[in-house]
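Re: weekly structure request thread

Next one in the queue (177 aa):
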Amino acid sequence: MWIGTADMPDKSDKWRIRMVEGRQMSGGLLNMVDTLGSYLQQQGQLCDRLEEIADSLPDSADGVLCIETANQMVRMIKSAHSFEEEELFPAIMAAVEDRLALEPVFDRLKFEHWEDEENAACVHEALCAFAVRRADSNVESLSWMLRGLFECLRRHIAFERDHVLPMAISLTARQFD
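Done, posted below.
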C-alpha cells in the first residue's frame, strides 16, 4: 500500500505530485506519507536481514553482514522514529479534529520506539561481538535477541502500515478536496 517510489526519504522534494486515492496531490503531508512508506519498507528489509542472520546461526552466519546490519540498524531505526515523533505525528495531530483519541495511540507508538531502540542497541552489541569473537558468543541468546527484535518491529510496522499510513493518506486527500 506504500505510495512512494524512492528507496530513501528525500526531504528536499517538498512539492512532489502523486496520485493518492485517485486524486493528484502535492505538498508537505504527502511528502511525509512518502517518507513514512520508505521507512516502513526499510524497516521491513531490516527485519528480513535479521531473520536471515538468526536462521544462519551459528555456522553459516556472515560476519560482514552481521556488522553491516548492526551498524545500519540503530541509525535507521532512530532516524525513522525521530521522523515520526518530530514531524509526522505532530502533523497528523494538527490535521485531525479528535486529538484526544489519537494521543494514547501516539504515546503507545513512542513507547514502542523507545523499546525498539533499546533492543536494537543490545542486538547491535551482540551482533558485533559475535562477528568478532564467534567462539565466545552465546548463539542461542543472540538468536532469541534477533527474533525478539524483528518480531516486535514487524508488529510495529504492521500497525503503522495498517493505521497510521492510511490516516496520513486520508488527511492528505482531504487537504486537496
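Residues 1-26 have pLDDT under 50 and may be disordered. The two ends are 21 Å apart (CA to CA).
Next request, please.
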